[in-house]
Amino acid sequence: MENEKYSQEKIDMFWKAFLKKTNRDETTKYLEAFHFELTEKLANELLHLVLDGQKKATASSLCMYEIENESIPEVGDLSIVTDWEGVPRCIIETTNITIIPFSDITYDICKREGEDDTLESWIQGHTNFFREEGKQLGYEFSDDMPVVFEDFEVVYQGEI
């Protein structure tokens, strides 16, 4: 609980620094603060791909949004990306949303995630991810499962 409070304080400070640095209205809200993936190793690896400019998109199951009762990102939404420990590292802005069946993902689409060199490796990694997430959240992965594919750009990297 203390860690969550500490992380939220850091996130709030990071957000305020972003608003000031970019001259945005102080009432501007962010959609969410999150880390990628389900393990520390992968969460931090994907964060570094974002910070290096290699990862410019992410894929999520539509089921996750429905089960968690979360809004699907929209173009223009801002989100804070943290490391595994919850330390804010950058802010991304959603530039495009595509909802597409898992089986219809092509390499031209998935390569924007910057994680895989082939469609086959993307399919394998994301099948494993969605199966594990499905176990945790209570949905079952299938090839026709809708995927929310979010393109984004980093609009801020800074210190608190």
What is the element layout, followed by pairings?
Elements: H1 2-21, E1 33-34, H2 40-51, E2 57-61, H3 62-67, E3 78-82, E4 88-101, H4 107-110, H5 119-137, E5 146-157
Parallel strand pairs: 1-3
Antiparallel strand pairs: 2-5, 3-4, 4-5
Explain what this protein looks like in three dimensions:
The chain has 160 residues and is of the alpha+beta class. The protein has 5 helices and 5 strands. It has helices spanning 2-21, 40-51, 62-67, 107-110, 119-137, and strands at residues 33-34, 57-61, 78-82, 88-101, 146-157. It has a 5-stranded mixed β-sheet with strand order 1-3-4-5-2. Strand 3 (78-82) and strand 4 form a beta hairpin. The longest helix is centred in the first third of the chain and has 20 residues, at 2-21. The mean pLDDT is 93.
The low-confidence parts are none
Which structural category do the helix and sheet elements fall into?
alpha+beta
Q: C-alpha Rg, in Å? A: 16 Å
Whole-number mean pLDDT: 93
Helix run count? 5
Q: What is the distance, rounded to the nearest whole angstrom, between the alpha carbons of the first and last residues?
A: 21 Å
Write down the secondary-structure element order: HEHEHEEHHE
Strand order in the sheet with the most strands: 1-3-4-5-2
The coarse silhouette is globular
The biggest sheet amounts to:
5 strands, mixed
Count all strands and give the number: 5
Q: Which percent band covers the strand fraction?
A: 15-25%
The level of helicity is: 25-40%
